[in-house]
Please model this.
Amino acid sequence: MSRRRRLTDVLEEYIDRLEEILEGYLYDMEERKLWHPSSEAIEPLANIYVEPREVVVTVDMPCADSESTHVRFIDDNTVEIEASLQRTLDFSSLRVTHRSGRFKKYHIRINLPVSVDPGRASITCYRNVLELRIPRK
Amino acid sequence: MPDGEVSIVEVRDIGEEPIVITGLPDVGLVGLIAVFHLASKVDMEEVGFVESDLLPPVVVLYGGIPKSPFRILRSGKLIAFVSETAIPASAVSKVSRAIVEWASRKKAKLLITLGGIPVEERYKLDKPRVYAAASSREVVEDLKAKGVEILDRGYLVGPYALIMKLAPLYGLTAIGLLAQSFFNYPDPDAAASVLEGLGKIVGLDIDLVELREKGEEIRLAARDLMRRTEAELARMRKSQEYDIPPIHV
Model:
């Protein structure tokens, strides 16, 4: 009985820890700033899907000039994506008058959870949603 | 108001037998974008707001005037609940019940929740399709007759799931109108599709040209709310909508 009790305690502690990790991740996501006036850049919303044979990254870049998209692999687990905006944006154009800052581009650095083969990556843009498909190593 | 309760405050008279629609922050912010566009096209006025200590301590400034981010709009018999702030997962149940109870007191003719249903590779779809679920078989058949596709099987998670579950218990008819959408990118095209579906059901011809033309600007402006909503979607285990229900024998 006492052994079963101990196992239950261990399991509950494990679940509590997982909940703490999830909550920490969600808090970081909520509080991360997407507007970076000092570098005139906006961080786009992005998703990473790890498939059996490839990693698919999508990046939402509304109002970007898709022809200017630049994808650069820093290593087998890190990719940097940048694209110019079609026109320079400032806070006042969003009717926010108490902050100053202008934005010329999207920029994001993405850490991939598995190693990939950057040389075989394919890039497609669908109405300014970028799709990056990269075979896994 | 006691702690943990949700109160619906009317600042102008709201008559009986309205058609109530909801556009709450959810996948792709579909319902929210749809209601704001509808409000601009049919000239909706503010008639109330939702108040609760379960909601974030947030106001939205319009011309220097603080307003509740969770407001009630009206145009004739059409009443819309819309929120400009993410609804905490812990508050979703009480907020949904409060809306249904209020709609019941108003003898609402119809309760329609506007939203998105997330699909893989949404970006490859030119025009998202709209599906409906409803609180009774009769309404499902009526929707089919009007040319609306039915969401036959699947899970629904969040306010619109609860509203549809609770509505029949209060003698109300509820319809969930859901367009194929992005999970966590604002989706004005899905909002346009869902408004087309709404138009078929309530007999409204809604001008969608501006919504489609300004889609990219809306996507850009709605990113911050989308990110905060995404965190609450994760807390309410929204990804279950991708799951396949077991087959009943």
Remarks:
- The longest strand of chain A covers residues 78-90.
